[in-house]
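Question (not urgent): is this output format expected?
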Amino acid sequence: MLGYDWPRLHAALNDLPIALLLAAVLFDVLALATRREFFRQVSLWTLFLGTLGGAAAVLSGLQAEELISHGDAVHRVMETHELLGFVTLGVFGVLTLWRLVREKRMGITERTTAVVLTIAGAGVLFATGLYGGRLVFEHAAGIPTEVLQRELQERTTDHHHEAGDDPGDPELDSLRAAKPGHVDPPGTPPHSHPPSTPTH
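Got this back:
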């Protein structure tokens, strides 16, 4: 599917509803504060589009869940993320239908209630994203095992970004070859090292 599997597609689709639904909250608050019809209309259509995007994110997430290798810890976080995703979609789905049906007939009390629910929906949206982030950054969910193993091997190699510590520096390479272990780059001022530092 355009080079995307379901987990990658789910990750790509997440940004759209988050941006649109948070924008809907902002325009709702502006509309309530200023009573300007322009902000009210923008909030309605960003809410509508954000809810459609949210439905796409939830559907792709359900497909991705079946393809991601995971253990019990990931499964628990994933289930919470999924539940929050459904709650988020439910809240904004109901708000969208409510606004589409009642938009031109809402009084101030009804409109204030809708804005409060929109803000509450944004809170659930934030929690959904938080658990989605935990899946990726704490559990590496969606990253194939072989890719993760290669990355772990890469991280264990001696790789630094210090000034003068360029593996292509011939002078430093010759020093390393002559004195295995820790070698200070040329021009390093005199200094002392902790007792565990290799001799050089």
